[in-house]
């Protein structure tokens, strides 16, 4: 367990887990169930569900959890369309702990996830932590049957152990960064992999930058844009060297998301005038990473 005496800033010790959701009650319940089975003591973390206007049974389901667990908050905002940036900002404003963990509905947490993030934040005090999740791809999901069947038979922790040896379910960033021992300290553009389904940072860092840009009202880019500002502000990015979460398969409107992401990227380019963002218009995140690394190594050489 983490020693609470490590609190250096006089803030409320622990982690606020912010989970935005919209009409995904069954996925949300899986996420909450996994978060209630942590090695971290319950008083050291809270779960903040920010409901972006659901019209299913999300509210009723969360209230049932609240009747038993005092560390769960439920915040509802009217359905004004896709407002995940606003939802995350609402969660940030309500957070009572010093560390924020941003987690998507449908991400299942291994039992050591919160404790691991907390330890990392005391090793690297003002860092941004990027976590990988089995089953994550950029816009599509492969091997979904394998993941579903495995989770029907095993606990999340056991499934995580087994998935380590199943290449087709790995996070699409896994192999690339495994070759680099998950060390991104010298990575020139770490914001490119700041995908908010599983990342953590100090609340003060989010507050200083006024959180997520609420211009984003369609899927894609709002997390990378926030990551870009965090990097520009001087925060060191750290990647967890172990996979402690699973993205549970669910339907994705891939053509719509691809179009939406392109429009949002153009907004980001206009806002920041960053040449590496511009390269994302025609290249994958991996190809842009390779170009940035090659240029950095050339300058060092």
CATH architecture descriptor: Alpha-Beta Complex
- What characterizes the major β-sheet? 7 strands, mixed
User: What global shape is seen?
Assistant: globular
Q: Which class do the helix and strand fractions yield?
A: alpha/beta
Number of helices: 12
Q: Hey, roughly how much beta strand do the residues contain?
A: 5-15%
Low-confidence blocks of residues? 1-10
Using the CA coordinates, give the radius of gyration.
18 Å
Helix content: 40-55%
Could you walk me through the main structural features you see in this protein, from its secondary elements to its overall organization?
It is a single chain. By secondary structure, the protein is α/β, with parallel strands linked by helices. It has a single domain (9-251), classed as Alpha-Beta Complex (Spore Coat Polysaccharide Biosynthesis Protein SpsA, Chain A). The chain contains twelve helices and nine strands. The chain has helices at residues 25-35, 58-66, 84-94, 113-123, 144-153, 156-163, 174-178, 203-208, 222-232, 254-272, 275-279, 285-300; strands at 15-21, 45-51, 72-76, 99-103, 107-109, 128-130, 198-202, 237-239, 245-247. It has a seven-stranded mixed β-sheet, with helices on both faces. A two-stranded antiparallel sheet has the order 5-9. The protein is globular. The protein starts with 14 loop residues before the first strand and ends with a helix. Mean pLDDT is 92; it is low at 1-10. GO terms for molecular function: transferase activity. Residues 16-112 form the Glycosyltransferase 2-like domain.
């Amino acid at each position: 367990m983490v020693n609470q005496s490590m609190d250096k800033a006089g803030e409320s010790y622990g982690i606020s887990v912010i989970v935005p959701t919209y009409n995904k009650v069954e996925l949300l319940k899986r996420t909450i169930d996994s978060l209630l089975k942590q090695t971290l003591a319950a008083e050291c973390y809270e779960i903040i569900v920010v409901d972006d206007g659901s019209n299913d049974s999300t509210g009723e389901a969360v209230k049932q959890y609240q009747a038993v667990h005092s560390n769960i908050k439920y915040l509802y905002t009217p359905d004004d369309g896709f407002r995940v940036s606003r939802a995350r900002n609402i969660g940030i404003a309500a957070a009572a702990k010093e560390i924020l963990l941003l987690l998507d509905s449908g991400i299942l947490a291994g039992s050591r996830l919160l404790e691991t993030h907390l330890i990392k934040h005391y090793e690297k005090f003002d860092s941004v932590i990027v976590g990988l999740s089995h089953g994550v791809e950029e816009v599509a999901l492969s091997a979904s049957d394998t993941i579903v069947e495995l989770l029907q038979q095993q606990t999340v922790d056991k499934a995580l152990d087994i998935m380590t040896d199943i290449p087709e379910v790995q996070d699409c960033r896994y192999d690339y960064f495994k070759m680099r021992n998950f060390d991104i300290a010298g990575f020139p553009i770490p914001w490119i992999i700041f995908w908010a389904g599983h990342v953590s940072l100090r609340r003060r860092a989010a507050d200083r930058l006024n959180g997520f840009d609420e211009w984003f009202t369609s899927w894609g880019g709002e997390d990378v844009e926030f990551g870009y500002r965090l990097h520009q502000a001087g925060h060191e990015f750290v990647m967890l060297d172990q996979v402690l979460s699973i993205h549970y398969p669910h339907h994705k409107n891939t053509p719509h998301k691809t179009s939406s992401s392109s429009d949002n990227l153009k907004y980001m380019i206009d806002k920041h005038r960053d040449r590496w963002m511009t390269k994302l218009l025609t290249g994958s995140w991996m190809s842009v990473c390779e170009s940035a690394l090659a240029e950095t190594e050339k300058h060092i050489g």
